[in-house]
Amino acid sequence: ILEAMVFCMDHCDSAVEIAECIAESLTILETEWPLKMGRLMLVSDVLHNTTSTRQSAWAYRREFERSLPDIFEHLHLCITRDESKLQADRAKQQMQKLLQLWEEWGLFAGQ
């Protein structure tokens, strides 16, 4: 996750394309939940660093703000289709913790 986040920050001038690729990768139905969660942690790290002094780092925030509703809708669909209630509950808890953290950071206005 760290290496991918550094790549994102080093290539802020391509934020639109990179964010699009990450968002798309989070909505592949066949992807296993642990990999989806890792990718979501990457999004979180990138969002946390959008306030850095790197030129155009802020663009990631704008791009992810556009795609996060679709991402979370897809993740919800994955959770509801999960046959393991334990895994589904764990996934819900992980996403709730992440959203609470973003709220504490003040990343997005509450909706």
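The record above closes out task 2.4. Task 2.5 opens with a second protein, given below.
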Amino acid sequence: KQRGGSAMASAPASGEEGSSTTPLIPAIAAFSTCGALAMGFGAGYGTRTFYSSEAYKDLIEKFPEQPTAEMEAMARRTGFRALAAGTGLATLMGVGAVLT
């Protein structure tokens, strides 16, 4: 008598041992897609709402002239610094969550 003969007979013919499909990858893809769609919808809806708001009309009334190149450079620099600081903070929070 051979031991484990029935276990060998039930093993898959391709040589894989008990591989099972997991819904992890499709779930990640689905949630990522839903998140991207939600962010896109929110950005579009927010932009459309802002351009039809009283705040936009007041802004145009108070500042009718175009910004100078120096003002645009300062705004770009400030925006980049804010993005870098937020990204760094999120990274540190992620590392802290993994380490604890």
